[in-house]
C-alpha cells in the first residue's frame, strides 16, 4: 500500500513539475552540461553568470528528473541536492576553481548513477566492461609469460639452471610491486588536488599513447625481434655476473613494465566502467584463469602458444580501447572546462551512459572528431606498415 501511495505521489509530482512528459535522461544530460558550462563561466570571471547557470542546472532541469528517481533511490536525490547547493554556495563565496571542480566531479558522477538507474545497464555495457577487464590483463600477462619463457630458455641454453630461481623471484617481486602500484595510484588519485575529470583526462591521454605504440609494436615482427635481442643481451650480462640477484632484477624490470602498463589501463577502464565495474573484475578473474592455463602450457608442458594467431586479435582490441579512451579523454577535458563543448543531443543517437563511457562515443562534435581522427591514424599507419613490409619482401626477393 505504501509503495502504491509513493508511486501515485511520484506521478503527481511529475505532472506538476513540468508540462507534458518529462524526458528524465534529457534533463539529466542538460544538467550535466550546464554544470560544466558554469565552471567555464566561473573560471572566466563571470561569477554571476556561473551562479545562474549552476542554479538553472538544478532548478530548471534536475528537479524535473527528481520525482521518478526519488522513489528508486531517495538517498541519491538527497545527496545531489546538497552537492548542487555546495556548488552554488562555493560560487557565491568565491571558492577556488579547484574546489568547485571537485564538487562538479561528484555531481557528474551522481548524474551518471541517476542515468543508469533510469535506463538500466542492459547487456552491452557489462559485456564491454568484462571484455576490457579480460583483454588488458590477458594481453599484458601473455607478454610477461613469453618474456619469462625466453629468459628461462636462454638460461637452459647456457646451462645455468641454478639461476632459474632468480627468474621466479623477480617475477614474484614484480607482481607484488604491481599490486602496490595499483593501490598507491588509487589512493594518490583520490587525494590529488585536481578535479576528477582532469585526472581522468590525463590518465586516458597517457593510456592512448601507450596503446597506440603497443598496437603497432605487436604488428611489427622486426621490432619484437629487436626487443627480444635486447632482452637476451641484458640476461646475458646478468648470467655472466653469476648473480642470482642480477637475474632476478632483469626479470623484475621486464615484468614490472607490463604490470605498470596494466595498472594505467585499468585506472582508465575503471573510470569508464562506473556502475558496471563489477563486470570488469569478472573479466579480470577470467583472464587470471586463462593465464593460468597459458602458464601451465608454457612452463609445465613446455609447449608453444600460438601467439601469431592471438596477436592480431589483441591488436584489434587494443586499437578499439585506444579509440574509446580518446573519446573519454576529450570528454573529461570538456568536463574540466579545458575544451569547448558542441552538443549533438537530438542530432545523433544517444547511447546508454555506461555504453557511452566504455566506448567513448559521446554526442559532442569534439569527442567524435577525435575518435574519427584516431581511426584515420590507425588506418594510415596500418597501410604504411604494410607498404614497408611489401618493400622489404621485394628487396629480399631481389637479393
UniProtKB/TrEMBL annotation:
According to the record, the signal peptide region is 1-17
Q: Which UniProt keywords apply?
A: Membrane, Signal, Transmembrane, Transmembrane helix
What GO molecular functions are on record for this protein? ferrous iron transmembrane transporter activity
Transmembrane ranges, per UniProt, are 136-155, 167-192, 198-217, 238-256, 276-298, 310-330, 368-385
Query: What organism does the UniProt record list as the source?
Result: Deinococcus yavapaiensis KR-236
Tell me the InterPro entries matching this sequence: FTR1/Fip1/EfeU (IPR004923)
Q: How does the entry describe its membrane topology?
A: Multi-pass membrane protein
**Protein's UniProt name:** High-affinity iron transporter
Indicate where this protein is primarily found.
membrane
The record's Gene Ontology cellular component field reads: high-affinity iron permease complex
Q: Where does this protein reside within or beyond the cell?
A: Membrane
Q: Which family does it belong to?
A: Belongs to the oxidase-dependent Fe transporter (OFeT) (TC 9.A.10.1) family.
